[in-house]
Write a structure and sequence with these properties.
With 488 residues, the protein is of the alpha+beta class. It is 26% helix and 31% strand. It contains 10 helices and 20 strands. A hairpin with a 4-residue loop joins strand 4 and strand 5. The protein is globular and about 65 Å long.
């Protein structure tokens, strides 16, 4: 693989899960069950790999070990009051739980505007296109993976990454990422929302243990070292990603193939998300109808609700609604007005402010009205791969990709055999999105007829998803997934 090529992550994953290295004695941090055909609820998966190249050729030896193990979730479960239990002890536990939650809320609220700004800038870069191609990515997943590079880098490289992420310093970003990870985390067997991260080092890389431990603790990331690019390590990364995404991405990222030439490290991040609608669709109400794609009309299966009470929102070029999910998240459907396109929506940050509720003092409150909606949403199962490298370049991130300027010196030391000068060669992200009557898999769509920048005149409005639209999934004002559906 040439240094400028994207990692090829498309293929079939082996059946066996990744085996821990000999040094890895602890149990796996996030146990996922063998998923059955039941995918009712919202299941969203994404894998992002940042591949870093080194200019000199490094001799590779097959070897693997666990450098640092990802921290267990530090999010305390809400205490349950037991029959016959000590009420004073329960109240004391609740006080501690509230204190922890409030402290986390402060950090999440501080991080949300920066994540929203990042999501708005990059979404316009990676999702634009008036065509029949569906596009989707995970802003929070990419944000956390880039935050890990800020932790690993120094000097101008770190400063530029922090600037793109809207962070004042690495220490504050570190605390915010931990809080965001914990806020998103949910894994009760039915409602699932889990981010997982890993850092893979080549065998010949000499690392700073303190940095690796920080990655494991603050970013909930496991750090492995082995023969990067070898069949053994490629298979381990493949299985790690499959394990963390419940096998949902095996057709897209099922077989990691990192060429052994000049590879120094790789960052792999995933997100698995599954939740049911609060108010499910009735399959008996499904209809076959026409979706007006750019290339022509196609038939699609639409899920329908009549006179479904919800908030209808509108902006300069769109109308939008949000559907509640049982894990406290929202699914947004953003439909461009007649004569407008998804690119018109993405060109402004107005929609991102709406879905994240990030408004400055100069902004008016968002236009919203509680009303009854005849809702019609097409079913779909969308997979998309996104090359983030050029998009990140376009928003001001260049040092990471510069062989002469990228600085990983705070985390890695030169060896006797070569002078370490790594830089980021590629950033690739794969996502799959699916919706059905019970829930979603990280993608969605909606259309509003006769709506737009003005307040709707009636108390009932037809919300028909029959042309290209923008969708998003958010949790606590954090954009987990953003995408476009141009062809259901």
């Amino acid at each position: 693989m040439k240094k400028e090529q994207i990692v090829d992550m498309i293929g079939e994953a082996p059946d066996n899960y990744v085996k821990d290295a000999k040094e890895y004695k602890k149990k796996r941090r996030i146990p996922f069950p063998q998923w059955s055909k039941w995918m009712g609820g919202i299941a969203a998966v994404l894998a992002l790999v940042i591949l870093v190249n080194n200019i000199p050729t490094i001799p590779l030896v097959i070897s693997a070990k666990a450098v640092s193990v990802a921290s267990e979730s530090r999010k305390t479960e809400r205490p349950k009051r037991k029959n016959g239990g000590d009420p004073d002890e329960w109240r004391s536990q609740m006080d501690l739980w509230y204190a922890e939650r409030d402290a986390r809320d402060v950090l999440v609220e501080a991080a949300s505007p920066s994540i929203a700004d990042f999501a708005g800038l990059v979404s316009g870069e990676v999702l634009s296109g008036v065509d029949d191609i569906n596009r989707v990515w995970s802003p929070v997943n990419a944000y956390i993976a880039l935050a890990m590079t800020a932790e690993l880098t120094g000097s101008e490289t770190q400063a530029q990454v922090l600037d793109v992420l809207g962070a004042d310093d690495a220490a504050e970003l570190r605390r915010q990422i931990s809080a965001v990870w914990e806020e998103i985390y949910e894994n009760n067997g039915k409602e699932i929302s889990v981010l997982a991260n890993s850092l893979w080092l080549d065998k010949d890389v000499e690392y700073v243990q303190e940095k690796m431990d920080s990655i494991a603790y603050d970013y909930y990331a496991s750090v492995y070292q082995g023969d990067l690019g070898s069949e053994k390590t490629n298979r381990a990364m493949t299985n790690w990603m499959r394990n963390q995404t419940g096998g949902m991405l095996k057709d897209r990222t099922g077989n990691v193939q990192i060429d052994p030439e000049d590879q120094v490290l790789a960052i792999a991040s995933t997100i698995y998300f599954q939740s049911k609608w609060v108010d499910e669709f009735d399959k008996a109400d499904n209809t076959q109808a026409i979706f007006h794609a750019v290339s022509g009309d196609v038939e699609a299966t639409f899920m329908n609700k009549e006179e479904y009470e919800m908030n209808y929102n509108w902006g300069e070029d769109y109308g939008a609604v949000q559907i509640f999910l049982e894990n406290g998240s929202f699914m947004w459907f953003i439909l461009p007005d007649e004569g407008k396109t998804v690119d018109d929506v993405l060109a402004s940050d107005e929609y991102m402010k709406m879905i994240t509720e990030v408004y400055s003092s100069k902004d008016e409150e968002r236009n919203s009205k509680r009303m009854k909606v005849n809702l019609s949403v097409p079913q779909f199962d969308v997979s998309a791969g996104v090359n983030l490298k050029e998009s990140l370049r376009n928003i001001g991130l260049s040092e990471l990709f510069d062989p002469a300027g990228c600085d990983f010196s705070p985390s890695f030391l030169p060896s006797d055999d070569f002078s370490l000068n790594p830089y980021v060669a590629s950033i690739h992200q794969d996502t799959r999105v699916k919706i059905d009557e019970q829930g979603v898999t990280a993608a969605s769509y909606i259309e509003i007829i006769g709506a737009g920048a003005a307040e709707p005149p009636d108390e009932i409005i037809d919300f028909v998803l029959d042309r290209p639209f923008v969708f998003a999934i958010t949790k606590r004002d954090i954009p987990l997934f953003v995408g476009t559906v141009n062809m259901p």
